[in-house]
Amino acid sequence: MRKFTRSKRIIGAKRLTRKREKPWAIVQYDNRDIPDKHAKLIEINKEYCKLHGYKYIFRKEHIEMSPWWIKVKICKELLETNKYSGILWLDTDAAIFDSSISLEKFTNNSEKHFFIGMDPLDKVFGPINAGVWMVKNTSIGNKIMKEWISLYKKENWMKIDNAWKLEPTLSKIEKKWAGINFEQGVFNQILRLKYKKYIQIYPLIILTHWKPEFKEGSFIGHFYNTVPARYKTDYYLNRFHRVRK
Question: What's 33's DSSP letter?
Fold first, then answer.
């Protein structure tokens, strides 16, 4: 691992900070009780925003729709306010690993408008993971977000015992996790192909890895409850905090 302290990384980050007409926004949402292990990640994201002059937005109001789609609705509406240069969405189990790196480093390609990481189970769920992504406030960025939310089929979802589930009459394929009725599946199967030349897919290690490493150029740690991290999520979370320092 590269040998430098957290304080040196912060100094480096300050050098990268510059005045902007509009800041980037980092957005998170959860209306459930936040466990301590995720609350710590949220604080890291807040600290990162202060360091780089970004806007941190945490939303927790009740929104009556499938929870997998709420992120798309919120970010699409925030982008339309025209207050931000772009938006980084982070699930509440994700946090910035290397604070010295600005969002601009990963979004400065003028030909790309949407940035997302790979999924570890790409052969099962498709090549992208919708837990971490960035979108620019451009006409194309807004177009992608508008089309994404338009693909939400409200009629296919129902609330049973306070939990959102797909209509039981749908086929197994239609009800498949991360399939066509989920925000990740729709992006994989439709938007990723339609807007291919405008989308940058980053390697797993950069945006969506549960075992980030400075030597590998990791930017964000993501501790989703899936294979192979499922049985070691807390271990990797503790390791994240230890190595990050």
Answer: P
The pLDDT value recorded for residue 3 is 41
| Residue found under tokens 């405008």 | 198
Distance between CA atoms of residues 66 and 219, nearest Å: 29
Q: Give, in order, the Cα–Cα distances in Å from 116 to each of 42, 166, 175.
A: 20, 26, 24
Torsion of CA 13, 19, 22, 26, to 10 degrees: 10
Cβ-Cβ contacts under 8 Å for 181 (sequence gap 6 or more): 153, 156, 157, 166, 170, 174, 175
Distance CA(147)–CA(234), nearest Å, equals 36
Take residue 149 and report the two structure tokens written for it: 């939310």
Measured CA distances, 165 to 58, 72, 99, 158, 174 (Å): 25, 18, 37, 6, 12
Q: What is the pTM of this model?
A: 0.90
* Domain map (residue ranges) of the chain: 6-244
Q: Name the residue among 89, 198, 182 with its Cα closest to residue 138.
A: 198
Q: Top-level CATH class of 6-244?
A: alpha beta
Instruction: Note the pLDDT tens digit of each residue in 47-80.
Output: 999 999 999 999 999 999 999 999 999 999 999 9
